[in-house]
Design brief:
Strand order of the largest sheet: 2-4-1-6-3-5
Number of helices: 10
Family: Belongs to the BIG1 family.
GO biological process, one term: fungal-type cell wall biogenesis
Membrane topology: Single-pass type I membrane protein
Shape: rod-shaped
Keywords: Cell wall biogenesis/degradation, Endoplasmic reticulum, Membrane, Signal, Transmembrane, Transmembrane helix
Subcellular location: Endoplasmic reticulum membrane
Largest sheet: 6 strands, mixed
Length: 266
């Protein structure tokens, strides 16, 4: 099995990968035949590495460019089990360039701007930039493996579409703030647990400061119907009482004799 120069160089410096806290590796490979310097070196500054990349890319050698940024990366992370897709496509490429220890950060935006300028007037290059999820620690293999899995799908597409150049640049490790989560054992008194969680419950119990007539409906449809019916009934009752009160009967009508006796007198 053929071992690439990049893999060999990275393996050679794994023992000293933590020598520089502000360093990170860079890997470049291309389907085109490039004049890669024979003596690449294990340690370079970011300006020297950028100058070498510009020298290799100034002729606009390929149609497509993939620029990958991997935060918190060091050379010890680039092993076969963590980045199998990256190393696979690196080994099958025609040209390869890598530096295990690049002092300072190498910005992929600067590389993209240089490629556009170099290809101006010749062709319109397709440039894709990927910002991978940062590694949480130097031993965060799972995140790096997931990133490599996503990268593998993109590399498969690039490899099937024609000529391409890939630049995989890491950024120096930075401190990741750790959050403290309080945990309580089963022996903690229940009163203490209630005191700890009660502020959250009080915070969620928002009081309703609306006026009384906005919170409650006092004049509903049923009450309105009952009031209207009551008014109608009172109106009818009032009309009846008024009619009865208006009747006038003369008192003589009660004194007049009625019946057979009165008829005999007549």
């Amino acid at each position: 099995m053929r071992i690439s120069q990049t893999a060999a160089a990275l393996a050679a410096c794994c023992a000293s990968a933590h020598a520089f806290s502000d360093s990170s590796p860079i890997v470049m490979f291309s389907s085109a035949s490039l004049d890669v310097p024979a003596n690449q070196g294990l340690i370079q500054s970011n300006t020297d590495a950028l100058a070498t990349l510009q020298q290799l890319l100034k002729s606009c050698p390929t149609d497509r460019y993939l620029l990958v940024s991997q935060p918190n990366l060091n050379a010890a992370n680039l092993v076969k089990k963590a980045v199998p897709n990256l190393l696979h496509y690196n080994e099958k490429a025609k040209s390869r360039y890598s530096v295990p220890e690049v002092i300072g950060e190498l910005n992929t935006d600067d590389i993209a701007a240089f490629v556009r300028k170099s290809c101006e007037g010749r062709t319109k290059p397709f440039i894709e930039q990927l910002d991978m999820d940062p590694l949480r620690s130097a031993k965060d293999v799972s995140t790096l493996w997931n990133n490599d899995d996503q990268l593998g799908m993109v590399l498969e597409q690039f490899d099937s579409d024609g000529s391409y150049t890939v630049i995989f640049a890491g950024t120096p490790q930075k401190e990741v703030p750790q959050t403290y989560t309080a945990t309580f054992q089963d022996g903690v008194p229940a009163e203490l647990k209630r005191d700890v969680h009660s502020p959250h419950r009080r915070a969620l119990n928002n009081s309703d400061n609306r006026p009384l007539f906005e919170k409650y409906q006092y004049f509903s449809t049923g009450i309105f119907t009952a009031l209207v019916s009551l008014v109608i009934l009172l109106s009818i009752l009032y009309g009846g009482i008024a009619a009865v009160a208006s009747l006038e009967v003369p008192y003589g009508a009660f004194d007049k004799e009625m019946g057979p006796a009165a008829q005999k007198k007549q």
